[in-house]
From TrEMBL:
Stored InterPro entries: Endo/exonu/phosph_ase_sf, Endo/exonuclease/phosphatase, GPI-anchor_lipid_remodeler
Organism of provenance: Rubrivivax gelatinosus (strain NBRC 100245 / IL144)
Keyword hit for Ribosomal protein: no
Swiss-Prot/TrEMBL GO biological process terms: GPI anchor biosynthetic process
Name of a matching Pfam family: Exo_endo_phos
GO cellular component: membrane
Record GO terms (molecular function): endonuclease activity; exonuclease activity
Protein name: Endonuclease/exonuclease/phosphatase family protein
Residues annotated as domain Endonuclease/exonuclease/phosphatase: 11-242
Domain of life (superkingdom): Bacteria
Keywords per UniProt: Endonuclease, Exonuclease, Hydrolase, Nuclease
Amino acid sequence: MKSPPSIRVLTVNTHKGFNALNRRFVLHELRDAVRAVDADLVFLQEVQGTHRRHSEGVARWPQAPHYEFIADQLWPQFAYGRNAVYPHGDHGNALLSKYPIVAHSNHDVSIDGHEARGLLHCTLRLPADGALVHAVCVHLGLSEAHRSRQLEHLCALVRREVPDGAPLVVAGDFNDWRDRAHPVLERGLGLHEVFVKAHGRSARTFPARFPLLRLDRIYVRNTRGHRPLPLPRRPWAHLSDHAPLAAEIAL
């Protein structure tokens, strides 16, 4: 009997290419670490699109947007959702994919006057059988009241744009240190968090060097199985303020 197809996913807040204290530009090392995981889908948050000041003053700053620089030739497909725009540049969420991205849309869930936040929804086509998989890259706010409203937006987005029976992966930086998202997403959408299912708790990811808070997540729906993938503490602890998460998901 043929085993079901599986995909490997990675999510990481890139901290705009700098280490946790913003003292060192580490995008090149970050790209190497992302490559080493060999994920099929890479969910990126706080990824830099453009930054005119840094492009002129930071050594080894790439000419291409950071998501494109990381994707290089390993992930031929990528989508970018610009969340924050300022006079000298922009940043947001991105999805890198080894599979064709047949549609994508970015949804602004920012609360007026506060942090710019977004939901990047991509529809992917698996080459083997042409099946469609949906992926949503998430970055929620620091305020619990804002996150509650943003989770409502996420639920509405999935109900509106994702068919009930389609495989779905929702991953990213939820900033949900009180674990309030789990019941909302499980009751509202039937989503299950990979690390909660495997270990009873979501993974500690912040701060990256000595993780205490459980901020980052990988949720799934309509999958045959899933398991967390261990990642080494080094070099990841020195590449962002968030530790990454990875999982193998059977479709």
